[in-house]
Queue: 2 jobs
Job 1
Amino acid sequence: MNIVIVGCGRVGAAMAETFDRADHRVVILDLSTRAFEKLPSSFGGEAVRGDGTDEDVLRRAGAEDADLFIALTEGDNRNIMAAQLAVEALSAKRVVAKINDPVRATAYAELGIATICRTGLMMDAINAYLGLPPSGIAGMLEPTGHHPGGEHHRHGAPEPAVAAATVQPTGASSPMQEN
Amino acid sequence: MFVLVVGGGKVGYYLTKELIESGHEVALMEKDRDRASQIADEVGSIVIPHDGCEGKYLAEAGCNRADVVAAVTGDDEDNLVICQMAKHHFDVPRTIARVNNPKNEELFRHLGVDELISPTRMILGSIEQDIPVHELLHLAALGENELELIEAHLQEGSPAVGRAPKDLNIPEGCSLFAVIRDGVATPLRPDTVMQVGDKVIAIGKTECEEMLHDQLIGGETVRG
C-alpha cells in the first residue's frame, strides 16, 4: 500500500515505522526536520519536510492516489484541511484525520472523513480502568456522509471508502446539541 | 444585517469597525484574550474572546442567526473550518473566507465556501496589470456558480482584434461586457470592433476560461 502520514509526532512516527516494517511504501511529512529524529535509523520510507496542508507539497511527496492518508498533526484544523485535500484533490482512497475537538470530529465524520478523537479515546480508557461508564464521546468515527459539494470533483475523488456504518455511541447526538 | 467576523487581526479589526460604522450588527471572535480585550476596549462588548473554530463558541456567538460569517484569520485551514462549520452546522447563508494560498481557492470553493478573498491573488493581479501579459487576468471571483470576472489585454495577433463579439465564438454562460480603451470604459456591444491595446472585461464560468483564452488571447500561451 501507498501510505501518507502527515505529522511526525509519537503516533505518526510509530505508525510510519510499523507500516514500513510491514513493507508498505510510506511517506511521512512534518514541518520540522527534528521531528524525524523519532523515526528509527532503519526507517526505509520517505521523510519529507513540508506543510501537509499545501497541495503542491503533498503532490511532490507523492500523495496522489494514496491508499491510506492519515493526518496526525497537533492542529485539528490542519488535519481537517489535509484530509479534505487528500479526498478531494488527491483522490486518496482511505483518509483518517485526528480531531481532538469532539464537536468537529463528529461534524467532519458527517462530511465524509473518518475521524479519531483523543478526547474520547482517553476518557473511555480512563473510565474503563476505573470501572466507570463510557464517556459518550466517540473515539473513532467512520464517515457517515459526504460533503454536499460533490458534483465538482476535479480528479474523480471516490466516495468515502468505508461503508457508512456509524459507530457513534448513543448519547452523542447532533454535534451542536452537546453544549 | 448580522455579521460574525472571526479573527481579530488587522483585517478583522478594521472590518469590524467599518461594519459598525455602516450600521450593521457585528460580533467579532478572537481567541487571543489580550488581543480580544484590547479590541473590546475600543468597540465594546461585541468581542467574544474565544476560538471561532470551536462549535460551542460559534453557537454562543449567535452563529445560527448570522447572515454572513467572515473568516479572516491568517490561517487558511482555520478559515476553511470556520466557514464549513458555519455552513453545514449553523446554516449560515453566506460565508466568506480569506485565502492566503491562491492554490486553496478551488478546494475552498468546492468545499462550499461561498466567497473567497485572496490578498495574494489581488496583489498578483495588480502587479500583472502593470506589465504586458499574455494571459487572462482574474479580477475577482463572484459568489455562486463559480463565476469569474476576467480581463484580457488584446495584443497583436489576438483573434479578437478587428472583430466584434458577435463574430467570435464566445462560450455559453460567458459574457464580454465592457472594453477599456485609452483609459475609458465603455460597454462592449455585439458589433463593437476590438482593437490592439483594448482591455476586454468578461464575466463567465471558470470552465469557460480556456475557450475565452483561445478567442481573446489566442496562439501559444506565454507567461507575462
Job 2
Amino acid sequence: MTFIPGLGIAKGMALTLRRVFEPKVTIKYPEVRLDVPPRFRGRLQLLYDEWGTLKCETCFQCAQACPIECIDMGGIDTRGRYHVHWGAPEQYDERREESALRRSGRPVPDPAFRPFAPIDLAAVDAVLDEYDHDPARMLAILEATQSAYGYLPVAALKRISHRTGAWYAMIYGTASFYAHLRFEPAAAAEQADAVARHRPAETTYLATLGAALDGSGRPGAAART
Amino acid sequence: MTATTPRPDTHADDQGSSGAASTDDPRVRLDRDLGVFEPVPPYPPRTEREAEFYTLGDGEMFINMGPQHPSTHGVLRIVLKLDGEKVVDLDPVLGYLHRGVEKLCENADYHHVISQVDPLEYVSSLFNEWSPVMAFEKLLDVEVPRRAQYIRVLTAELNRIASHALFLGWMALDLGGLTPILWSFIERDEIVDMLAAVTGQRMLFNYFRIGGVNGDLNHDFMSRLGDWMSHATEQIEAGNTLLNENEIFVRRMRGLGTIDTETALRMCFSGPNLRATGVPFDVRRAHPYSVYPELDFDIPTRSEGDCLARYLLRMDEVRQSLRIIDQCLHEMPDGPVMAKLPRLIRPRPGRAYAAVEGPRGQYATYAISDGTHQPFRMRIHDPSFIHLQAVGVMTPGNLIADTMAVMASLDPIMGGVDK
Amino acid sequence: MTVIGRGWDRLTLPGKVVFTIVPLLIALTVGLVVAIVAFGGPLLDILGANLPIVRFVVAVTLVLLMTVPTAFLIIYMEMKGIALMNLRIGPDRVGPFGSLLSVVHGLKVLMKEDFTPTGADPVVFTWAPVVVYLASVMTLLVIPFAPGLYGADLNIGLLYFFAIGGLSVVGLLMAGWASYNKYSLLGGLRSAAQVVSYEIPLTLSVVGLLLLAGTMSLNTLVENQGGWFTNWYIFQQPLGALIFFIAATAEANRTPFDLTEADSEIVAGFATEYSGMRFGFFFFAEYVNVFIMSALTVTLFFGGWNAPFPWPWPIALSLDPASFGIGLLFIAGLAPVVLTLLFATPFFVLSSRIRWWQALIAGFVLANLFIIAMLGAWAYIGLDWVAGILWFMLKTYVFVFIFVWMRGTLPRVRIDQLMDFAWKWLLPASLLNLFVTAAAIVVIRS
C-alpha cells in the first residue's frame, strides 16, 4: 500500500498490458499432445511379448495387489452368473513351460497345471449347497472341500469361485494362508514335511552366507529360524 | 416461505387427506413448496444450537451457499443467516465428500494405504502420503536412506509451492480477480509436470513408499527442475504484483476475519493460519522430522491474524520453500532410495504417530498395528477441518462477500475435511 | 384429405415449418407487390411529407440492428483481451482468430431451452430482460456517431440519456424479484442500490461541463470540441472526466463494480434463473452498456467524432466521373489489369523462386488492397461522416478496451466500500469540480 492512491492499481494495469504481448502458454490440445511421462502408471494394458504371446498368465497377482480393487478377471454373463476369465489353458501351460525354460534352461513339468484335469465336482457342489454359497464362510467351505477330496484341487477352487462369486485370488489367498489346507494330495504333503525336516540345514546355510556377506544379506534372513 | 420453525416431515401428513394423489406424485410436492429447496432440515431440531440457528429473527433469511456454489472450495454447504447483506450466523454442513478413507485404510495392506490417502488434500498429495508413511516407518522401526529423505523433502517442498500457487489464484478469484488464477496454474503446471516426470502422475502422486520413495530422480525431472529454477515463482510474483499493492484488494482483506492468538490456539490452528497470528509454530522446527534439522530456513510469522496476513505469510513461505529446494539440490547424497523391506509388512503390535507440516498446517497420522498386514486402526488429523471451524467465528457480522474472502484465506480443501 | 393429412404427418418439424412459412411468404410478397403498385405513389408522398418520422423510424431500426454486432464485437474483444492478459490464446477456432465465437455464442443462446422457474412471476420474469435491453438501446439514439449521423438531436440530449439509462435498474429489479430466488433478489437489490448511488456523481460530474458549454445537446457539445485536440473538454474538466468514467463503470456494472453479478458471491445475481435468449438479452445489454458508456465518455470529454487535428470538411473533390464519358468504361476495365500487372512485376523480377502465376495472385491481391485503400481515402476525405464515424469508433473502442483491461486486472470491491466510495469520495469530488468550474467561469467572464 503506497501513499499515492491508485498507484497499486496502475502497476497492476501496466503488468496486465505487458502480458498481452508476452508469449502464450496454451497447448492447442487436439493438434498438440503432451508426452505421457515414462513413469506414468495409469494406463492398464495387456502387453504382448516378442513372440506375440500375451504376457498375462492369469496369475491374479495384479488383482490382489490393486488397492482399490478395480482389477478383476471375471464378469457377469447374460444370465447373471459370475465367471472367472481364465486365460486359455493351453496358452497358460505353454507360458508356464516357457518361463520355466527361460529361467532354468530345461523344461520343467508344472504340477500347478495338473489340477485342471477334470475332477468330480459333485462333492464341491454338495459342500456349497450345505454352506449356502456364502462367501463369508469361505474357511468352512474350504475345510469341508478338503475333507471331501483330501486336498484342495484347483478345479474345486475354481468351482467355488464360480458359484459363490468370491474372487479366485481371495480364495487362493485364504487357502494358502492356513497351514492345514493343502493343494496336493496327502502323500505330497508328507513329502513336504520331509523337506521341512531339512530346514535347519538351510537356515544354517543362510546364516553362514549372511556372515560371509558381512550382514548385508536380506534383512530378516538371520531371524528366520 | 418463511421458516420460523423447523419444518416437519413434508410427506408424512398427506396420506389420509388426499386419496388420489400419492406421495410419490411430483405435483404434490411442487404445489406444496414450489420445488424450492429450503435449507431448514426436515427433522425437528436435535440440539439447542440447531433450534436457535434455524429460527429466523425479524427481517432475516436463510441462504444456501453450496454445495454447488461457484466458490465454496469443493462441496461444502454453508447455510447463511442473512440480515440484508450482513451475515448474522452461519452453519457449515459437511460430509458431501465423505468416502470413509480411514476405514478403507484399515481394510487395506500397509502399502495400499498410500494410494488410499492420496486424494485427501488433492492439491498437495505428497504430504498426505508422507505422514502415514512416516507412522508406518516408526511402527516397523525402519531407517529411511538419506537420499530418499532428501528426495522426499525436495518433492514435498515443490508440492508446497504448487499448493500455495493455487491458493493465490483461488483467493483472487473469490475476490473477483480473473487473472491470477491462470498465472498460478502456469506455475503449478510446471511443477506438476516435473513431479509427473519423477512420480508418473500429475495429481495423486503415489510416490512415497514405506522405507523410501518409489523411484530415484531421473533426468527428465532434473532438467525440468533446472528450467523452472531459472524462472521459479515468476508467475506467483506476477500475481503478487497484481494483488499486494492493489488498493481494492488490500482494503478488502485488511482487518477482515481477524483471529487472535488465544482463539487460534484454542481451536488447534496450525500452519500458516496459526503463524499469521504470531505463533512461530512449525512442525518442521518444533518436532523435527526427516532432514529438516540439517536445512537452513526461516519460519515467517505475522502478528495481524487477518486475511491479508494469512495471504502474505503464504507468499513468504514460498520463498522459504525455494531456499529449501536449493539446499536439497546442493546437499543431496548418493545412495539407495529405498530401505530393504519385505513385500508383505507385518509390524509388531504397537502404535505410532507422525506429523508433517503440510501447506495448510499440521498433517498427522496415528496408526495402531495388531501384528497383521493391515493397520488395526488409523486416524488422520487434517488441518482443513480444524480451520473450517473458524469460519463460524470470523464471518458473522461481515458481509456475504467476506464469507468467500475468509474461506479463501483459510484455504480449506474439502477432500481433506470430509475424508 | 387423408392423403394430405398423412403427408403432413410424415414431415419432420423443420419440414412442417417450411411448408407453413413458404406459402405465407409467397402470398405476402405478392400482396406487397400489388400494394406497392397500387398505392406506391401516394405512400411515397405521405412518407415525404413526414420526413422526420421516417427518419426516426429508420434510426431506431438501425440502432436496434447495430447493437447486435456491437455486442458480438465487444464480447469477442473481452474474451480475446482477457485471454491474452492471462497468457492464454483465447478463442481461435471459429472464424479468423476465433472472431466468430461470440456469434456462435449468440446462436447457442437462441437455441437453448428458455424456461421459467416454478414460483416465478411469469409476466415480470419475461419482461425484465426486454426492459433492460430497451433501456440500453434507447440511449443510443441521442449519441452522435458522425456529423449528421444520429438518431435524434434533442436539445436535452444528456438529460434524456441519464433518464433512460436509469430505467435499466427497473428491469434489473424486476428480474431479481420475479425470479423467486434469493441470489437473484440480492443481485437485484444490489444493482438498485448501486445504480441509484452512482447516478448522482455521474450526473454531477458533467454539470461543470454543461456550465462551460451552455447546452445539453450532445451534437452541439461535440461541435464545440472541433479543431485541435486541445479543445477537448478533458483538458478543461480532468476531474470531471475521471469521476464520470468511474461512475460510468459502476453504471455499466463492470469490474471492479460488477457486484450485481458477482459470481463468487451471489452466483450470477439477477440473471441466476435466466437461460436462453432471455439471458442473452441481459448479456447483450451489458455489453451494449459498455459501448454506450464508452461512447458517451468520448462524446463528452474526448471530442466525439472530431479528429484530434483540424480538417476542413468537406473537401469538394474536383474529380467528376461523368466528365470521362465513354472513357470511364475503359478506365474501370483496364485499371485492375494494369494495377495487377504493376504490382506483380516486382515479385516476378525480384525472386526467381516465385512462379509467374504466384506473382500474378500476389499482384491481384495487392491491387485490390490498393483500390480499397484509395476508395477509403477518397471516402475519408470526401465524406465527412465516414471520417467522423472512423474517429468516433476508434476512440470508443479504446475505452471499451479500457473496460476489458480493468476486468482483466482488478478484483471486485465490497458492497459497503462501493457505497462509501460513491457517497464519501465521488460525490464531494464532483461537487468540488462543479464549484471550481463555476467559480472559474465567473472569474474569467467577469
